[in-house]
Amino acid sequence: MRERSTNTLTTEPMRRRHLRRVLEIEEQVHPRPWTHRTFVTELNHMRTGSRFYIVAYVDDTLVGYGGLMFSGSDAHVSNVAVDPAWHLRGVATEIMLDLAVLARDRGCEALTLEVRHTNAAAQGLYRRFGFVPAGVRKRYYENTDDAIIMWAHGIQSDEYGERLDRIAERSK
Description:
seven-stranded mixed beta sheet, 5 helices, alpha+beta, 172 residues
């Protein structure tokens, strides 16, 4: 994972020892948070290489996390979450950078995700990473809110690599 200079933001692979803090953040940002058991199951999938999760620290404080699920030549962003006290400080951008680089390193050709249709800030972040809307999942969240399905294709291209370089440069 990459180390950055601003307040020493670092990322590392998620481990079980991170779950108490991850669950605290999860409960703050999601109306129906994942359970401890769900995260343990996801971490077990890391052993097979079908998932990868990271946590983000600022100094010694765990402030966010994100994950990927690999399927064929695609990587699905399963979640990105940041402690509300750290919103709008570039943490989600750094998590997305690491996830996008990881997907490229794994040889993936595309990234996909679902985002709540009302979450304009997240949609803006994902657009910076080349995601475009491709469909809607009706009542995806808690059976009430729709999700916008977004895709970023061609992530192995030089142009996409340059996009990531520009994002990384701006986030320094």
